[in-house]
Amino acid sequence: MIPAFFTRFEKQADIANVVDGGLCTALLRTKKNVHGILFRCTTAGTLVTLANLALYITNLKLKIRSDTKIECSVKNLQKIISYYYRRQALSAGNGYTDGAGVLYLPFTRPNIPDAAQRNAFSWGMADIESIGLEMQMAADITMDKIEVWLEVDDAPPRPLGAHICIRPMQFSTADPLEITTLPLGDASIGIGRLALHLDLDAVTTDAVIASVTDKIDGINIYDAIPPEVNEHMLRAAGRYQQTLMYHVDYSRANSLAGFMPMDGVRSNKLTVDFTTQPDPAQLPIYIEQIEGLLLNNK
Fold first, then answer.
1. pLDDT tens for residues 56-110?
2. Which domains does the chain possess?
3. What stretches in the chain show pLDDT beneath 70?
4. Which residues does 57 contact at the CB level (< 8 Å), separation at least 6?
5. Alpha-carbon dihedral sign for residues 284, 285, 290, 294
6. What is the pLDDT of residues 104-119, one digit of tens each?
7. C-alpha 93: how far from its chain's center?
8. What pLDDT score does 95 carry?
9. Is residue 44 packed enough to be buried (19+ CB in 10 Å), middle (13-18) or exposed (0-12)?
10. Whole-angstrom Cα distance, residue 278 to residue 171?
């Protein structure tokens, strides 16, 4: 008998419209609890290199009904996913990396050692017909096939419940950069922030951060933290700091309780001081948060 929380992989239909500039869409269907999605990308049967994979798929979205839960470039997904793996660096000091042609997108977090806590973030599909997938192809690609598997378990199907979302926001980069428009909580569903991922790799100059201050309801969560101090904290938590990324990490405890509760929060001000200011003056910040915390208790 297969244990209830043992995960296995269900094959889905291959993605259509894998062509230059194509927008690939698919509905991924299962009634199981989903732990992640595995993609295999090839050109005439040959695995696409990791570098080309990041170039060919410029944007990836996952939706439940009309709500975008994950939106990110593949390049940044590779960085964010590898950031959480406690492994010896395999590629350019960036921690865990997928093999050539393969992208694995986990819905759970591998840095949480307790299996029950880790599985709590799988997407329950009992009341959901499908996961909507969108993949935007670059203008000039040679990739011609994308295969998809859902990682599922055979535990009793449950509603969606608590789940991790990743979404981008763009900000003009005055120096210092002061942001007061980050999303706060939603008392109807329960939100906990996991991390902010600042993507300096998206700008054309060698932007350098001097320090970051994160103030929530008047309390400094990060208080003028320079990159080298942040990197030390992240290494202690088993993280890997990628080049040209600054991670404001609220989940360094590596447990289900390792997040910043946002319900009831009235204000949040993020201040980024630069030694070298980005150009062009747009800085992508990926917001990673748990949504549906209260739904698990209903």
1. 999 999 999 999 999 999 988 888 888 887 544 444 444 455 578 999 999 988 7
2. 7-153 (2.60.120.730), 163-297 (2.60.120.730)
3. 1, 4, 86-98, 173, 187, 204, 279-281, 294-298
4. 41, 73, 74, 135, 136, 137, 138
5. negative
6. 999 988 778 777 778 8
7. 19
8. 45
9. exposed
10. 11
CA distances in angstroms from 262 to 222, 250, 271, 295, listed in the order given: 16, 11, 18, 15
CA distance 122 to 126: 12
Mention every residue, 6+ apart, whose C-beta is less than 8 A from residue 114: 255, 256
- Tokens for 201, please give them: 């790799």
Cβ neighbours for 263, distance < 8 A, ≥ 6 positions apart: 185, 186, 187, 190, 191
Nearest to 199 by CA among 247, 234, 251: 247
Element (DSSP H or E) covering residue 220: strand 219-225
CA atoms of 203 and 200, how far apart (whole Å): 6
Tell me the β-bridge partners of 288. Answer: 166, 195
Write the CA distances from 131 to 33, 90, 107, 160, 291, integer angstroms: 12, 31, 12, 11, 16
- 25 contacts 114 by C-beta, under 8 angstroms: no
Q: Are residues 152 and 8 in contact, defined by beta-carbon separation less than 8 angstroms?
A: yes
Residue with tokens 């090839």: 42
Backbone angles phi and psi of 3, in degrees to 5: -60, 150
Helix (H) or strand (E) holding 55: helix 50-56
d(CA 12, CA 55): 24
Position 169 scores a pLDDT of 87
